[in-house]
Automatic annotation (TrEMBL), chains A, B, C, D:
Entry-linked InterPro entries: Homeodomain-like_sf, HTH-type_TetR-like_transc_reg, HTH_TetR, Tet_transcr_reg_TetR-rel_C_sf, TetR_C
PANTHER family, per the entry: HTH-TYPE TRANSCRIPTIONAL REGULATOR RUTR (PTHR30055), TRANSCRIPTIONAL REGULATORY PROTEIN (PROBABLY TETR-FAMILY)-RELATED (PTHR30055:SF230)
Keywords: DNA-binding, Transcription, Transcription regulation
PROSITE patterns per UniProt: HTH_TETR_2 (PS50977)
Keyword DNA-binding: yes
Alphabetized Pfam families for the sequence: TetR_C_11, TetR_N
Annotated DNA-binding residue span(s): 40-59
Name of the protein this chain belongs to: TetR/AcrR family transcriptional regulator
Taxonomic lineage from the root: Bacteria, Bacillati, Actinomycetota, Actinomycetes, Kitasatosporales
Naturally occurring in which organism (per UniProt): Streptomyces roseoviridis
Length: 208, 208, 208, 208
DNA sequence: TACTAAACGAGACGGTACGTCCCGTCTTCGG
DNA sequence: CCGAAGACGGGACGTACCGTCTCGTTTAGTA
């Protein structure tokens, strides 16, 4: 009945919380300096002042470690309230672009996604640690826009979710593609065009 | 007669053309079976019935080899003429999605893009071998739509190019993101929504 | 009354005697199954149902543990009284050979001796736990033979000790070398030859 | 018919002979400094200016490497001709004792013998590389002694071999046991006693 | 009966070496 | 000069144990 039942305190020496944070910080530092492919577990361990075994006790491989190390950066994204949906979106897209410019994300993100095509647990970890967590931005933005009357209310919840997902893929995908594949700057002008295209599409679709 | 002749037929044994195609095929086969990260140069050489030296004589490293092996697949994309822009786009997007579903592209594409963030020559090779070659689809589609009157004529060439680039990043980015990051199916329904969003946005923008 | 009492019964929980015997038994079992080099402290601890800490509280390292685990086996050697020195020696040599055939001694003995060449405390432990304890057999045998008149009395105690030591090294060394280095069977015929050689040499020497 | 049939010249780059000798020398140096148990493959490779893989390409493990490194030292043993069998034996036993005192053999020999109890290929390697090669000393000694008339001729070849083997085990075993187990000096006095014991035994046995 | 102090199990820790895999280069021979 | 074969120096991998440590939990004798 009381909560003491489940795994009160595990026997043995508890894991060091300091080690966790030191490792994640070291991983980000190594990503900045070396990039994904030159990052090694041994180097991360040395930077963190930790034994290699301590890394492997917590993460099965380099990919999962890097996902966790990078995931936290995405939580910094904030949807501002600048008065209009267009402005809010432009701001958060620029935040996202700035994040993708950081060397620790730029190289790591694509690499783990590439690996995830062959690694189901990794894909799941990416989804829960990064993707799903950032969908909140789309959800928030749409809800606020509807309250403001900038977007029409859509009743069918399945349609709502489908549109949210579409927006997420379009915005995130376009920014990533622009930044990493096309290797062109994600500047204010481009962001304005992207946002206009998308909002135009949304309202046009709603009027049908 | 002049000294240029030596470049016409160099002395010694000429390079085997068969080796080239065997290597690229072997690379694709290895990608299918092993994925990017487990693919090794030695394995490709063995599959191709070729010595490792022969690989390195033609490509500097694994990344460039894989780009060349995969690039040719993208040339299969064709913009059909189904009568309406909407239908044409939906068709080519589905072709692109099918291409991304193939294991040899799925795993390789993101990986080389990831590497390219730290490797300028590789980025250049990706751009010329893959990216720029596929922009033709956007160009073709827009021109044909304008001829049909489905899209308004835009006079300023800089704007034209900017919009073409935007469309390319949006469509390619969205599909890639949907397929590889969100790991959701790129099915007819989703493609219709994407196309509608985009065309809606384009016409809305043009009316301003 | 005086402060020496604290050494009689130390405060705190006393060490478990069961643990001691369980550990030594587990060590022998592990030697049988795995041999010296694959035996690990963690494995012994698990077999004994004991924590690794408990091992290290009692023995400084693997070598000392193994010496203690094996030493007790040597105490089983008994010099029988079969009526003649030749017969007595043959019997005890065969006992010794049988002991060396057991997998827990075969693999462990040479290994700890090898380690002892670089580890003075270990050498001392081997000497006191094994070597010196078995010299009793030579001493007993010689004394009994002299009482029986099978060997002449030697007066000089230094010579006596030197000869005892020589016999010990010759017999033990020959058996070990035959069994482990030459890897030939220590059978009745060989033991007879060895014993005859030695007794012949001893009487020949005494006649000089 | 011609000798070219068997493996004339294998394809590919041939193995470096310099690497072989450098590795064996480095192994002996490491044995001197570190002893058997602290010797590591990586360290040997570094000393030899060679990659670890080069070691593993030639030897399966540390044990086999050490056997080969040490074996050559035993070939230095020479049976001198000092006029009498007793003197010859004493001399070669002292050579053997001196060899066993060298740090590279002292620690390594027992260790590989210990390992060989669980490793049949290793035992075979020890036998062919070391043991059988040194039996020549016994053979030579006996033959010369018979020519000189110091030992009676024995006709039965099986008996001859059995006695040769016995002598080998007795002498080698006694010296090793004295030096490494008893850890007492193998000095002139002790060697004289050992030789006398053995020769006495041999002649006594022959007279029966 | 409670206190105290050591022993206990469990298991995380920093560290070292392992033996393997692959890299990209080189050295040989034969075509 | 090309190509196969394969050895080379190098570097990272992920694993296995080492011997130590830090927990919370017994288990005595003592107060």
């Amino acid at each position: 009945m009381c909560s003491r039942t489940r795994s009160r305190t595990r026997p043995g020496r508890p894991r060091s919380a300091e080690a966790d944070t030191a490792i994640l910080e070291a991983t980000r530092a190594a990503l900045v300096e070396l990039g994904w492919s030159r990052l090694t577990m041994g180097d991360v361990a040395t930077r963190a002042g930790v034994a290699k075994t301590t890394l492997y006790r917590r993460w099965n491989n380099k990919n999962e470690l890097v996902v966790d190390a990078v995931a936290v950066l995405f939580d910094e994204l904030r949807l501002p309230d600048l008065g209009s949906l267009q402005a809010d979106i432009e701001d958060v897209v620029l935040q996202f672009a700035a994040l993708l410019e950081r060397p620790e994300t730029k190289t790591a993100l694509m690499a783990v996604v590439a690996e995830s095509t062959r690694d189901e647990p990794l894909r799941e970890r990416i989804r829960t640690s990064i993707v799903d967590r950032q969908k909140r931005l789309v959800l928030e933005g749409r809800q606020r826009a509807q309250e403001r009357g900038e977007l029409p209310e859509e009743r069918d919840p399945a349609t709502v979710e489908a549109v949210d997902d579409l927006i997420f893929d379009v915005v995130a995908g376009a920014v990533v593609h622009r930044a990493l594949v096309s290797a062109e700057p994600v500047d204010q002008a481009w962001v304005q065009r992207l946002t206009a295209l998308m909002l135009g599409g949304l309202t046009a679709a709603a009027e049908l």
